[in-house]
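chain below, 309 aa
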Amino acid sequence: MTHHHHRHDVGRKLTIAACLNVLVVAGELSIGWWAGSLALIGDALHNGTDVVALLLALVAVRLERKPATTEMSFGYQRAGVLVAFINAATLVALTVFFLQEAWSRLGHPHAVQTSAMLITAIVALAVNTGTAWSLYRESHGDVNVKGAVIHMIGDAISSAGIIVAALLIRFTGSTIWDAVVSMLIGTLILWSSYGVLKESVNLLLEGTPSGIDPGVVQDAIGAIDGVQGVHHLHIWALGPSSPALSCHLMVGDVPVKHTAALLDEINALLLRDFRIAHTTIQFEFTVCAVDDPSCTPYPVGGVTSGKRT
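prediction:
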């Protein structure tokens, strides 16, 4: 499957997921209000943010398809990272408000219609589980889609919690379980959304993408025959699944024409082992200076220890 077809497939799945979640939100809000269930209303609000999350993710996917221009030389790939940050930050803020409401209801329990809770939560669980599963494969290496999937998983967990709460209310006769389960759901959602928030902030600040160790990358380059030193190594992300790299390589006193094959070998290594397709590599026809702490020396064809930037 080509990258274009892959992004089109992701867009189609996001559209279907958003439409299904609109129906879930409408059902949970109306039934939750009638049944008097805070957990059900909270899940409806959570699903509401998921609709926004899915729509924003869809917008980001389409923006990423736009070609680069003279003004936007890297295209719009970073849109996916920005959307992931907005999604995670919105979810955290809404969940904090929801936890406060649940805490207030602990001291003032309300009557709850458990049958309506059960039926609605089961339907919501099926929808959220199905949409999360359909997008799971596409979420690998794409923080934008991963953010949408985590929203779906969080909602699926919420729906499962509502089912548990309804059963506990039925068996014990105490409506306090509605608020207790709501607080547990809110805490779990905060924990699950923190990872996406942290990763998106890291990428927006030009940090190294998760899953890539700069030291390992540097040693892999240094192990290639002909590379005698590596410095000014930087790894960042152009978009959710587009890591980039720039560095200076010391190659000693060799003819310039010999660097073409070396560059091809390095780029092939970076793409194969680290998924890094965009590189900017500058060759320096010298070796690391003894007093240069920013340069890591390597013998030809091997790896030695040294100080990294």
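The longest strand covers residues 229-239. The radius of gyration is 25 Å.
thats it, cya
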